Predict the 3D structure of the following.
Amino acid sequence: MFHSTPFTTLSRVACGLCISLSIAACGDLQGDASSREFGSVQMALTALGSDGDTYRITNATMQIDGPMSATVSLDEAYGEDAVFAATLDVGSYSITLEEGWVLERDSGEGFEAVHADMVSSNPITVEVQRDEVSVVAIIFESVNAEIEFATGDLEVWLGVNHIECDHGEYITRSCGANLSGRQFRMCNEGWWQEWSECSAHCDQGYCLFSDPATFDTATVDHEVTRLDFKSYASGSLVTQAYMYTLPGHVYSDEVSFASIGASNQMYPEGSDTPFLGQKRDRILGYGGHEWADAGIRSSAGPRNFDGFDAIEAIFMDDAQSYAMSFQVANNPAGFHIEVHNADCDIVASIPVSAGYGTHFIVIGDQEVPGIEPASSVILSPSPSDGFFGTEAWTLNAFAFAR
């Protein structure tokens, strides 16, 4: 791995190739031009990496503060130039690369943006000395490489070494308010992917996400089962406008779905026994009015279609998972997610707000001591003002990794 100090300032003899930058000074300059002393500052904007790819900084604004001050749009001022070079009054300067910069890599098919973190000091302090060139190195760490932009004798160079990783390897870090959430980064075929979104809520090592790309990122080294409920396990399509109670495993040979009591329905139908707390191995298939509306519901009885309760996804054949993804039709009142282990103990309990959207992703951070894999997951709608105690919703897609 390439290592460097947070920033580097080197002194070299100035040469005529340095570009003079006209900078408006803050305040009045003392003395005439003949009494002023000048030096130069350089920074590489493009370079060839040791991996054979060319990197460049774009969309960058540089703020220079010191005896002279300026705000410089590097794209506008330097375009395709490989080097930023400015002539400045002698003195101490603070150079800041403003937020919004983009690191791009050209692998032979044009430049594309890559995720990167700036790991050098920002702002950088640099001393400009008379008739000398102060070279500033700015260091980035991307998912592919550690990168140092600098110049040497006006020949742009870049130290790039691939940060080795094993496929499926991952790292995590805290994020969000009070560092209560989690992010993770996965290795895909030897290359680090971008950091995932920050989780909205975590409990006992399991965290809640909403971006479908997060699930894909977290499961690069796993077998993933994806169910969209547009067809049964037999492969036949769900009929339009079709509702019928059926065994919970009819949609998959790997997951069985059960109805879980959560509202004020009665079961058995017509009895005075609330379905609350009960479990039923039959669910409701729903074709909707278009194929895209197909989903499954939980229902206490064969004709209680309008109001229904929680759905439990049970992994069959002793399968276990640390990553699960739900997609529901709507989220008017919020949900609650319970992760259960093989002994049916609750190992994580995560609330989902009504404004969170309709895609719920639960991922377990295996770096958390004592975390247990899920053997089943219960998705429960929150109580509402609806006649049946819960709003109508369907489970339109489900995925899990093992």
Q: What stands out?
A: Residues 8-162 form one domain. The longest strand covers residues 132-142.
